[in-house]
Amino acid sequence: MSFDLISFFTDPVLRAPTLGSIFMCISSSLVGVLVFLRKRSLLGEALSHTSYPGVALAVSTFAAFFSPSSDGFVFAILFFAFLSSVLGLLCIDFLKKRFRVYDDAALTFVLSSFFGIGVLLASRLQTTHAVWYKQVQTFLYGQAATMRDVHIFIYLALFIFILLAVLILYKNIQMLIFDQNYMRSLGVQVRYTEMLFVFLTCLAVVVGIRSVGVVMMAGMLIAPALTARCIAKSLKQMFLFAALFGGVSGFLGNYLSVSVPELFPGTRFVLPTGPMILIIASVLCFAFLIFSPPNGLLWKKLSRKKIKSKILLDETLKFIYSRPGKLASIFQIKEELSISFLRAYFILWILFTKRFLMLKNGSCCLTKRGSKKAIDIFKCHRLWGLYLIDFENDCRYSSLYDLTPELLKDLQEFEHVKYNHGEK
Amino acid sequence: MMLGLHLNPYKNCDFFEFFSVLSTRVLGLITGQIGLADLVSDEIQLLVLLGLCFSSAFLGVFLVLKRMTMMANAICHTILLGIVLAVLVLSPFFNFQASSNSILSMKILLMSSLCTALLTTFLMEFFKQTVKVQEDASIGIVFTFLFAVGVVLVTLFTKNIHIGTEAIMGNIDALDVDDLQIVLFVSLMNFSFFTVFYKRFTSVTFDPLFSSSIGISVSFYNYMIMVLTSATCIAAFRAVGVLLVLMFFVAPPLMSRMLTNNLRSIICLSFILPAIGSFITISLSRHFLTVYQVPISTSGLLVTVFFVMYLLLLLLSPKNGLFTNFLAKSLPIKVID
User: Fold this and answer.
1) Which residues, including other chains, have CB under 8 Å from residue B28's CB and lie 6 or more apart?
2) Percentage of chain A modeled with pLDDT above 90
3) Are B51 and B183 in contact (CB under 8 A)?
4) Distance between CA atoms of B221 and B56, rounded to whole angstroms?
5) What are the chain A neighbours of B254 within 8 Å (beta carbons)?
6) Which residues on chain A are in Cβ contact (under 8 Å) with B288?
């Protein structure tokens, strides 16, 4: 039995977990952007744990009335989980506001006490109703494989709800994240938007616990948002990228957890879906944090090195130009720039290959091209000084090498006007 | 105690009978009629919980005051990976069976806990300081990732999620005298570290700038706290599970903060209050078993008892309790202090 990619969306057994996880991941990553930018990423961790007693309570009360496979049961679990995570949220706020408990202590206290109550409620079922107990346990690490078509519709509905909320309230969200004072001055109620934001977080968490599980839900909120943060240039892009990465990790997690065990037939090799989704999401996140172009760690290091070597090249050219006869030996260059011999040799080699230098009586001499380049560098440095002096409030350019040719031209004209004005 | 067959003397005890039996047993222990080998499961559980209360009294207070409880939460999660790796490293050398944990010797567990604590803290610091991710996000992503790896490894190598669930939830009924050893060791370790470095820990906690200016490395003590946290998690994971041990760290300082503001008294109360809670928990779980024939999760019950104790303190604490404030407002006579 082998699966192609399309069968994940059509096969009656596979489509529910795949589509369900994708919708869930997208909605959690949309909300995750909000949570991340509000710097309350760990709220998701607390809220997912506080939804656990709701699940346990729903299973132990409703399992007597509904059969565990009925659709109403799914609703009941979602509803109770939502209620209990809202209750947990109220507890956290109460502890923080009324008793001045530290933010993190309040979060951890509420999450562990609610989780403990959940464990207590679930253990009540352990001996008497083993099947129900198993059902509660699946919410710990998530179990996407047993999702049914009804889950697709519920998650689709919740996903659309979250998407609409984000789209309609986009302006308010923007203000809430970036400038609350502006929001107050416009007369928009900060408190209601804040409440709505927390409400959306609860909803996303509750949607997620079925496939990723209570314990790992926090990661699903953070990872796509953090990944998107590496490459997004605006809030809109961040939402888009987060949704994309969330969806991709939801799909890949499902795909790998089904297809990798297929490679080892005969062994009872199992990959759980929830943790796989999370692992994919966080590996993506780590990769982007380290390798992505503008902000990644490696990229930044590389570009810094590049600029450093460029500065050295410029300084060497300037130095040789300033020497009598435009002649300098490698020792003089080494002394002047206080660099190692090897480095000086390397720099000179680069300049030779660019034909800025030639050999003359055993020392380096600038070619015509080289002198022109050196003059350009002097000019550029002078204009940069001008920019720093006359445009001190302009902060678009932070280094000499950010200057574009057009700007240099403008600066030159400006210089011309400024210094010739007095003569007229 | 006939023919070495230990009959549990607490069988069919309800809440109050438990305490009377306990007091006679303690008397017997003191007078030497009952040896250490004769301890029954209830007493072992009680001793383990008391040891945990003792170790987390110091640790929890400093964690809460240094606002590092979320880091402790992260360690509690990643310790699962440490346990799994310890099992995987061991399994080629021993005939490992998924059902028995007896080969998880103390040394290996402690070593693995040390490694996971260092790994977790290092990764969190790396993302925070080198990659410049916000602190909460870096904590959140690191521990969920490591936890997910742990869960995947558990399911891969043990074919079931049983160990994982047991490590998360704890299985206090499976404790035996060997577990007492590790708890004793860890609590002694905590005690000695915190008494020897008490001054330094306080200065690092309340004035990190001052302490770094007189040459105390703040990050060294942070790492030390994290390592101690993970060692305590290892001691606790068989009793209460790695997630619920967080309650041991957070609840006692919060409870004692409702009663006093003095650091030494907070530490003392952080041992006494949860110790009372542990007595109540063990007797309550026995009570439920006797009266309603319902075996319930002791660790869950423990957390619930702590939760209720904290709620009571919130209501009744003389300092700032809700009910106390209400009384003070509604009483016609104002007390001048």
Assistant:
1) B34
2) 24
3) yes
4) 16
5) 101, 105, 109
6) none
CB-CB contact of A347 with A406 (8 Å): no
List, for residues A371-412, the tens digit of each pLDDT value.
Answer: 888 888 888 888 888 888 877 777 777 777 777 778 888 888
User: For the purposes of burial, counting CB atoms within 10 Å of the CB of B30, is it exposed (0-12), middle (13-18) or buried (19 or more)?
Assistant: exposed
Check for a shared fold between A7-295 and A299-422: no
Instruction: Say if B164 is an interface residue toward chain A (CB within 8 Å).
Output: yes
- Three-class SS of residue A357? strand
Strand partners of residue A328? A364
d(CA A59, CA A288): 40
Segment 96-125 of chain B within 8 Å of chain A by CB: none
CB nearest to B136's CB, from A39, A123, A268: A39
What is the torsion angle, in degrees rounded to the nearest 10, for the CA atoms of residue B49, residue B52, residue B57 and residue B63? -130
Is A141 in contact with B144 (Cβ distance < 8 A)?
A: no
Overall average pLDDT of the B321-332 stretch = 80
Residue A366 pairs with which residues in a beta bridge?
Answer: A357
Which tokens sit at B244?
């619920």
Q: Tell if the CB–CB gap between A105 and B253 is shorter than 8 Å.
A: yes
> Under a CB-based contact definition with an 8 Å cutoff, are residues B123 and B142 in contact?
yes
Residue of B nearest to A295 (CA): B131
Is the Cβ–Cβ distance between A31 and A177 less than 8 Å? no
* DSSP code of residue B128: I
Which superfamily does CATH assign the domain made up of A7-295 to? ABC transporter involved in vitamin B12 uptake, BtuC (1.10.3470.10)
Q: Minimal CA–CA distance to A212: which of A259, A147, A263, A126?
A: A147
Of the residues A29, A40, A57, A215, the best mutation for testing chain B's interface (the one with the most B CB atoms within 10 Å of its CB) is A215
Six-digit token pair at A400?
């000499």
Residue segments in chain A with a per-residue pLDDT below the cut of 50: 1, 424
Chain A residues lying within 8 Å of B244, measured CB to CB = 112, 115-116, 119
* Distance from C-alpha of B263 to C-alpha of B117, rounded to nearest angstrom: 26
User: Any idea what the Cα angle at residue A35 is, between residues A249 and B70, rounded to 5°?
Assistant: 95
Delimit the domains of chain B by residue range.
15-330
Contacting residues of A for B73, CB less than 8 Å apart: 45, 108, 111
Asked whether the beta carbons of residue B151 and residue A117 sit closer than 8 angstroms, the reply is no
Nearest to A56 by CA among B64, B25, B300, B14: B300
Do A105 and B314 count as a contact with CB atoms less than 8 A apart?
Answer: no
DSSP tag of A402: G
CA distance B6 to chain A (A): 25
Where in chain A are the domains?
A: 7-295, 299-422
pTM: 0.85
Give the minimum alpha-carbon distance from B228 to chain A in angstroms, rounded to a whole number. 18
Q: Do A111 and B306 touch (CB under 8 A)?
A: no
Q: Using an 8 Å Cβ cutoff, are B147 and B77 in contact?
A: yes
Interchain proximity A105–B294, CB inside 8 Å = no
Give the CATH class of B15-330.
mainly alpha
For A23-68, write each residue's pLDDT tens digit. 999 999 999 999 999 888 888 889 999 999 999 888 888 777 776 6
The complex scores an ipTM of: 0.88
CB–CB of B62/B266 below 8 Å? no
Query: Chain A contact for B295, CB < 8 A?
Result: yes
- CB under 8 Å to B222, separation ≥6 — which residues? B66, B68, B121
Closest by alpha carbon to B137, among B150, B128, B146?
B128
Instruction: Give the CATH class of A299-422.
Output: mainly alpha
Which one of A112, A268, A285 has the shortest CB-CB distance to B243? A112
Would you call A219 and B144 a contact, using CB atoms and an 8 Å cutoff? yes
